[in-house]
Amino acid sequence: MKAYVNENCIGCGLCVGICPEVFEMTDEDVAQVIAEVSEEMESQAVEAQESCPVSAIEVSADRE
C-alpha cells in the first residue's frame, strides 16, 4: 500500500503520533511519507488517515 499527504496538511502531527514508521514532520512543519505501508502498518496508516482533521492523508493499494 502507498500513503500520500496532500496540500491540505496543517502539520498537526497526529499521523506521526499514530504511525511514525510511515509519516514524519518536515522542516516546514507538514507531514510527509517516509515509507510504503507494510501489512503490519496498514491498520495504523488507515487510523492516521481517518484521524486527520483536514483529510490530508490518502492510503491506497493503487496510488502511484
TrEMBL record:
Residues 1-28 form the 4Fe-4S ferredoxin-type domain. Keywords: Electron transport, Iron, Iron-sulfur, Metal-binding, Transport. This is Ferredoxin. PROSITE patterns: 4FE4S_FER_1 (PS00198), 4FE4S_FER_2 (PS51379). Pfam families: Fer4_13. Gene3D superfamilies: 3.30.70.20. One of its GO terms (molecular function) is iron-sulfur cluster binding. Ferredoxins are iron-sulfur proteins that transfer electrons in a wide variety of metabolic reactions.
